[in-house]
Amino acid sequence: MENKKAQGMSITTIILIVLGLVVLVVLILGFTTGWSNMKDWVVPSNNVQAIVDKCNIACATGSTYDYCTTLRELKVEGGVKVTKDCWDLANLEAYNAYGIELCPAITCDGKSSD
Description:
It is built from 5 helices and 2 strands. The protein is mainly alpha-helical. Helix 1 crosses helix 2 (35-42).
């Protein structure tokens, strides 16, 4: 008898099968749950918590430049976009609802909370 070896699947074939299954799952989820829900997984409709975290890190590390001058684009539900630095977001009353805390360790030159 002859020793017959089974032909193995190539790595490329296995990768293509896995990618095909991923695409199939995304299509099924998109059509069953709605494409707008899928969009929120990829691009969140708001980034308030991310901006709060960045401002807290700038305060904790004493990074005056990041806290006082780096502009942050705050995206809120409903498509509202606010572009301000952390100092403005923390000190101006119009932005108190976003929960960005004051940073007493950093003094921004030329800015006052009046």
